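Notes from the 1:1 (GR / supervisor)

We went over the backlog. Supervisor wanted to see one worked example end to end before approving the batch request, so GR pasted a single chain during the call. The sequence is below; no edits were made to it. Supervisor asked that the structure be written out right there so they could see what the output format looks like.
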Amino acid sequence: MADHTFDYWQRRLDDLAGILEKHGFAAETAATAAGARDRIRRAAEEMRPKSVGYADSRTLRAAGVIDMLRADPRWEFIDGFDRSKSRAENLERRRQALMTDLFLTGVNAITEQGTLVWLDMVGNRIGGVAFGPRKVILVAGRNKLTGSLEEAMRRIRTVAAPLNARAHEHFRTPCQITSRCHDCSSPDRICNTWLAMERCYPKERIRVILVNEDLGY
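Structure output shown during the call:
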């Protein structure tokens, strides 16, 4: 039997990739997270970066991208999320990652009109996407697609942010308990800075890989 669900999403992702390309992004689709990992490996081999950094992403981890990049001796891998290091040390490494040749992360939501949307606590993710690293690769599961900027922001507030807060067990935010945004003033608030990117400049600095699976928050 035909996989109508896969075909449904593939058509939508193909359409979105075309829109992103018109907006200056390099864009492509992958059937699986493993396929996205293979595309990232090939892209990195073509780029030959001296240094690689990332902002933490459930999607990248699920795809095995972080482990792949860490194990490759051909570049310096800057890890700002090393649990054996102190928070101060990791923050300094995250600053260093903003000047790498290649930077990877995920995205909270993408609109059908081709706008990429993030909401960050620290800002190292959106900082790296917006400016600094020479090349950026973003990976997004099909569950990140939304109909409008308003829907994207609602998705982040009601789904991505509460789930992310719950994943950090040492954080204390109201949304961990209620699964709803309270626009809180908690010291652990993870919703501090928005980025909505409509176009890529310079052209094709950012590559977006759209995956026909549900990935991350």
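Supervisor's comment: The mean pLDDT is 96.
Batch request approved.
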